[in-house]
Amino acid sequence: MGNYRIAVLPGDGIGQEVTAGAVEVLKAVGVRFGHEFTFEYGWIGGAAIDEAGTPLPEETLRLCRESDAVLLGAVGGPKWDGNPPHLRPEKGLLAIRKQLDLYANLRPVVCYDCLASASPLKPNLVQGVDFVIVRELTGGIYFGQPSGRVVENGEEKAVDTLLYKKEEIERIVRMAFTLARDRKKKVTSVDKANVLSSSRLWREVAEEVAKQFPDVELEHMLVDNAAMQIIRAPKQFDVIVTENMFGDILSDEASMLSGSLGMLPSASLSASGPSLYEPVHGSAPDIAGMNKANPIAAILSAAMMLRLSFGLATEAEAIEQAVHQALAAGLRTADLAPSGGRVVATDEMVEEIKTAVLDYT
Amino acid sequence: MGNYRIAVLPGDGIGQEVTAGAVEVLKAVGVRFGHEFTFEYGWIGGAAIDEAGTPLPEETLRLCRESDAVLLGAVGGPKWDGNPPHLRPEKGLLAIRKQLDLYANLRPVVCYDCLASASPLKPNLVQGVDFVIVRELTGGIYFGQPSGRVVENGEEKAVDTLLYKKEEIERIVRMAFTLARDRKKKVTSVDKANVLSSSRLWREVAEEVAKQFPDVELEHMLVDNAAMQIIRAPKQFDVIVTENMFGDILSDEASMLSGSLGMLPSASLSASGPSLYEPVHGSAPDIAGMNKANPIAAILSAAMMLRLSFGLATEAEAIEQAVHQALAAGLRTADLAPSGGRVVATDEMVEEIKTAVLDYT
Ligand SMILES: CC(C)[C@H](C(=O)O)[C@@H](O)C(=O)O
Ligand SMILES: CC(C)[C@H](C(=O)O)[C@@H](O)C(=O)O
């Protein structure tokens, strides 16, 4: 029996609907297992720009810092696309990652048997896929300085900086090895060491950290090859660890193995304070407010929160099993329609999962 | 009837075998169409390090500059993996790109009907795929300065710089639009404008260039989404234009649409001098010298040379048709085995294609 304060930042578009679904499922967990979850809401992204004139208000940050964990929806939308860089919804996301020191982004890629046919890949290639991408989230080219526009000798230029400190690499690689130890004991470190200086440092540090984990195998893979191998033979992977931008690209690619981006949860673990949980998908403005979005990525993110922030493994399993049951019963949101089954609305999917959680034995 | 000087740089590993195959096919074109091709050989990559102590000897560069076009194999191998950065085979490739001003890397992605089943993707998704990735090749994070290691306040760091000048973006985007005009009239410009300054400049310039091509549609796509869309619905693409690193990652990923990396040719067009043609695949040390490699990517690169450097469209078509015929006749190198047919050695595949070129009517 515990008391947990959860900051909920729905953000924009379908972020609203999917976090609402995840909150309902968490409430069901509370009822079933006798925990008390408190939900407090904050603005982020476009919604925060509209309400408070900035994509990450101080108030939201304070709320997060006072909470035990953060549940985020998604940010962005055409409404703010024309805004100057510092007033874009994405800045709120980047800022919260930096401010809360959310350095380790865990993106599990799992293919549910009954969804294998929803993947663009051949079912035999994706059935049984189960790996996790560990993406560095607070460094690299996302945050390096200088970054901006310069005019030199009448020439217009733009520059971005990919910077990594040794410690930043160390802690994320160590996280990957720690995870691998409880899994299939294999770490694939993805870099571009034949071109980038930062990748050569990355590779060196990975080798060093590996020495502390003699029971885990380390393999290096160039990012171009990794982009190919993820679709050529995805079952070869256990834990993939990589820098911020490569992780962004590879995890969106890998989402197709699970049939839909709507299935992928993520955890962004903090070095110091509360961690943050969010679906990998975006705000999907085209279907926002239509009760069509797949709430499963957000719901599975809530399960990750229970396991990783609160140490509630059984409760997390109850959610995961409930998701399995709903899918096995043939319920499909629109994004999963290619795999057959019966297409249902967001709230119907949530209801089914909630009920299964309440019935968990 | 023309005379053409071709510099051949086989490089390392299977680079040797596949360029040998392409040269044989070019000789057949010479016989069939009455052209004279002169082939002169130079070292590059690991072979050049062994022979001349540097991955791109001056002599090789001179040879290329005096030629009408360059045919390259592949570089790299475990033998040189422990070398210091400036003595790595890849440096030779990066240096020749920069020295010859090979700014526009064209990577066509075509799925041959009879190979559709060799792709990890479902056949109905890849059948009919026909797009080209236009990758900027002499700028961006591959060449930006500073790039290296620094120790600051006892902290070890590594840095790379993503830099683009406006003109660099302009010329590559213009190339993409020019190609699209003769194709399906659609350009997808891939960037990460929600994070990178260089991408925001890229997007602006793309918009500007688009005004000069009112008959071609321009669409912007974020790189993470592009990595997903390429496998989700590859037929939506006609011409993809993007910066150096994104192009590297996306083109290796896209190679899986054609069944094998062994099928993908490329052209690297120069702003000023001779252009360079090379297969997208690497040196594949594991099968080097075993007469197993797929020579088709190199042979199709030779066809691109005929069309783009020499204006020999019919001759290029003769090669492409010969490749089609060999595949339709059921010949498959080992990499294509999943699509059925009869597995043949490199030289047998070359022989079949050569014969078909000689018989071209
Ligand atoms: C919205 C964007 C800034 C973000 C990123 O690039 O990190 C998103 O793509 C993600 O993967 O969370
Ligand atoms: C070998 C390497 C430097 C090269 C690159 O990254 O450009 C290769 O991957 C390619 O795509 O030609």
UniProtKB/TrEMBL annotation, chains A, B:
<comment type="subunit">
    <text>Homodimer.</text>
</comment>
<dbReference type="InterPro" id="IPR024084">
    <property type="entry name" value="IsoPropMal-DH-like_dom"/>
</dbReference>
<feature type="binding site">
    <location>
        <position position="224"/>
    </location>
    <ligand>
        <name>Mg(2+)</name>
    </ligand>
</feature>
<keyword id="KW-0520">NAD</keyword>
<dbReference type="Pfam" id="PF00180">
    <property type="entry name" value="Iso_dh"/>
</dbReference>
<feature type="binding site">
    <location>
        <position position="248"/>
    </location>
    <ligand>
        <name>Mg(2+)</name>
    </ligand>
</feature>
<keyword id="KW-0560">Oxidoreductase</keyword>
<dbReference type="InterPro" id="IPR004429">
    <property type="entry name" value="Isopropylmalate_DH"/>
</dbReference>
<comment type="function">
    <text>Catalyzes the oxidation of 3-carboxy-2-hydroxy-4-methylpentanoate (3-isopropylmalate) to 3-carboxy-4-methyl-2-oxopentanoate. The product decarboxylates to 4-methyl-2 oxopentanoate.</text>
</comment>
<protein>
    <recommendedName>
        <fullName>3-isopropylmalate dehydrogenase</fullName>
        <ecNumber>1.1.1.85</ecNumber>
    </recommendedName>
</protein>
<keyword id="KW-0432">Leucine biosynthesis</keyword>
<feature type="domain" description="Isopropylmalate dehydrogenase-like">
    <location>
        <begin position="5"/>
        <end position="353"/>
    </location>
</feature>
<dbReference type="GO" id="GO:0005829">
    <property type="term" value="C:cytosol"/>
</dbReference>
<keyword id="KW-0479">Metal-binding</keyword>
<feature type="binding site">
    <location>
        <position position="135"/>
    </location>
    <ligand>
        <name>substrate</name>
    </ligand>
</feature>
<feature type="binding site">
    <location>
        <position position="252"/>
    </location>
    <ligand>
        <name>Mg(2+)</name>
    </ligand>
</feature>
<keyword id="KW-0100">Branched-chain amino acid biosynthesis</keyword>
<feature type="site" description="Important for catalysis">
    <location>
        <position position="192"/>
    </location>
</feature>
<comment type="similarity">
    <text>Belongs to the isocitrate and isopropylmalate dehydrogenases family. LeuB type 1 subfamily.</text>
</comment>
<feature type="binding site">
    <location>
        <position position="224"/>
    </location>
    <ligand>
        <name>substrate</name>
    </ligand>
</feature>
<dbReference type="GO" id="GO:0003862">
    <property type="term" value="F:3-isopropylmalate dehydrogenase activity"/>
</dbReference>
<keyword id="KW-0028">Amino-acid biosynthesis</keyword>
<keyword id="KW-0464">Manganese</keyword>
<dbReference type="GO" id="GO:0009098">
    <property type="term" value="P:L-leucine biosynthetic process"/>
</dbReference>
<keyword id="KW-0963">Cytoplasm</keyword>
<feature type="binding site">
    <location>
        <begin position="282"/>
        <end position="294"/>
    </location>
    <ligand>
        <name>NAD(+)</name>
    </ligand>
</feature>
<keyword id="KW-0460">Magnesium</keyword>
<comment type="pathway">
    <text>Amino-acid biosynthesis; L-leucine biosynthesis; L-leucine from 3-methyl-2-oxobutanoate: step 3/4.</text>
</comment>
<feature type="binding site">
    <location>
        <position position="107"/>
    </location>
    <ligand>
        <name>substrate</name>
    </ligand>
</feature>
<feature type="binding site">
    <location>
        <position position="97"/>
    </location>
    <ligand>
        <name>substrate</name>
    </ligand>
</feature>
<feature type="site" description="Important for catalysis">
    <location>
        <position position="142"/>
    </location>
</feature>
<feature type="binding site">
    <location>
        <begin position="77"/>
        <end position="90"/>
    </location>
    <ligand>
        <name>NAD(+)</name>
    </ligand>
</feature>
<dbReference type="GO" id="GO:0051287">
    <property type="term" value="F:NAD binding"/>
</dbReference>
<dbReference type="InterPro" id="IPR019818">
    <property type="entry name" value="IsoCit/isopropylmalate_DH_CS"/>
</dbReference>
<dbReference type="GO" id="GO:0000287">
    <property type="term" value="F:magnesium ion binding"/>
</dbReference>
